[in-house]
Amino acid sequence: ATMSDDDYKIETTDAGASATIPMEAGQIKKGGFMMIKGKPCKILSISVSKTGKHGHAKCNFVATDIFTGKKLEDMIPSTHGTTVPIVNRTEWEIIDIDEDGVVTLMDEAGNQKADLNLPAIPEGMDDEIRDAWADGENTVNVTVQAAVGIEQIVAFKKI
């Protein structure tokens, strides 16, 4: 039993490690990404406050969750480490949208993907995508943003 426990620990660390990279709080720039309360966030603003005589400068981050748009804040001493999510954006063409909002996508190489739903956030974007696609009459490309094991359609354009 002990062996499988260890194996499991190793796997989870690897999975987490590939999704995020460590970075010193003071190195993070506005417009960059950072994990706050376990959520991948895009930094809106950073203010640095000096504390007492022996204190370290603290960085106050205001950010939005890249998937929900929810505003989050965090304060970290600038020399402390934090984690930065690796964010990938890929372009896909919509092949199909079913009644439940499950989207079938295809990339330029012809790879298909059918594990995403129309986005619930921002509100109304799902209907806009459906309208633009018009049951397949139009070609619609979407941008899929992926970070920390989550994937979501974040943008679309009718071609």
From TrEMBL:
PANTHER family the UniProt entry points to: TRANSLATION INITIATION FACTOR 5A FAMILY MEMBER
Q: Which GO terms describe its cellular component?
A: chloroplast
On whether Translocase is a keyword of this UniProt record, the answer is no
Membership in a protein family: Belongs to the eIF-5A family.
The record's function comment reads: Translation factor that promotes translation elongation and termination, particularly upon ribosome stalling at specific amino acid sequence contexts. Binds between the exit (E) and peptidyl (P) site of the ribosome and promotes rescue of stalled ribosome: specifically required for efficient translation of polyproline-containing peptides as well as other motifs that stall the ribosome. Acts as ribosome quality control (RQC) cofactor by joining the RQC complex to facilitate peptidyl transfer during CAT tailing step.
PROSITE patterns tied to this protein: IF5A_HYPUSINE
Give the Gene Ontology MF terms in alphabetical order. Answer: ribosome binding; RNA binding; translation elongation factor activity
Q: What processing steps or modifications follow its translation? A: eIF-5A seems to be the only eukaryotic protein to have a hypusine residue which is a post-translational modification of a lysine by the addition of a butylamino group.
Highest classification ranks of the organism: Eukaryota, Sar, Stramenopiles, Ochrophyta, Bacillariophyta
What is the species listed in this Swiss-Prot or TrEMBL entry? Leptocylindrus danicus
This chain belongs to the protein called: Eukaryotic translation initiation factor 5A
